[in-house]
Amino acid sequence: MLGHHYTHTFLETAVASMNAGCNLELSYGMRNNVFMHIPKALAMGNITLQMLRDRVRPLFYTRMRLGEFDPPNMNPYSALDLSAVQSPEHRNLSLEAAVKSFVLLKNVRGTLPLWAQDLPGKRLAVVGPFADNPQMLFGDYAPVPEPQYIYTPRRGLETLPANVTFAAGCGEPQCQQYSRAEVVGAAGAADVVVVCLGTGIAVEMEGKDRSDLSLPGHQLELLQDAVQ
């Protein structure tokens, strides 16, 4: 609210938030966050102790229902490790969810799907800044993934029975430094080209908006070179 000029100080923001029923702040670890001003607001009489209790009660009730205050041995999830989380059953379920969530906008001449039985001897090129950059495949608020479980487009395509070549063209999504020769060399010698473009948190995230919907940097040029 301070950034939107609804209030002028963190103290005013704390009071307004409490009066509105807010009981949780995403503070980004700031020591001088908004809700640290609640004791001062209470001392000044801007809020009452009963209001403070009313705001805190549902928050801690939820935490208790989630078992946050239970001994670890009472929590069945505390015994889970990556052998369970990354079990074949769960990984297959993740694969199924990924396959079923694809959005296919156009499929000229039935290019997709790529059938494994048709690929032996074929040359497949995967190009673009998202082709083999694990850190760029996760959006804002994503967890920190274990590298060995990340399948980039390049890594996934290399499991197919085809001769796969790779060319990033540019190292980051901003694509300020673009190697046209690298992309043209890979795409020109291929029977099938997979182009991996986009934005990612390096370009846009909460608090970091784009000014337009164009592909960043030289990405459009990369796409045009791959098509040509």
TrEMBL record:
Any single GO BP term: arabinan catabolic process
Pfam families assigned: Glyco_hydro_3_C
GO molecular function: alpha-L-arabinofuranosidase activity; xylan 1,4-beta-xylosidase activity
Claim: Hydrolase is one of the keywords in the record: yes
Superkingdom of the organism of origin: Eukaryota
Domain (Glycoside hydrolase family 3 C-terminal) ranges: 103-226
UniProtKB keywords: Glycosidase, Hydrolase
Protein name as annotated: XYL2 arabinofuranosidase
Organism encoding this protein: Eurystomus gularis
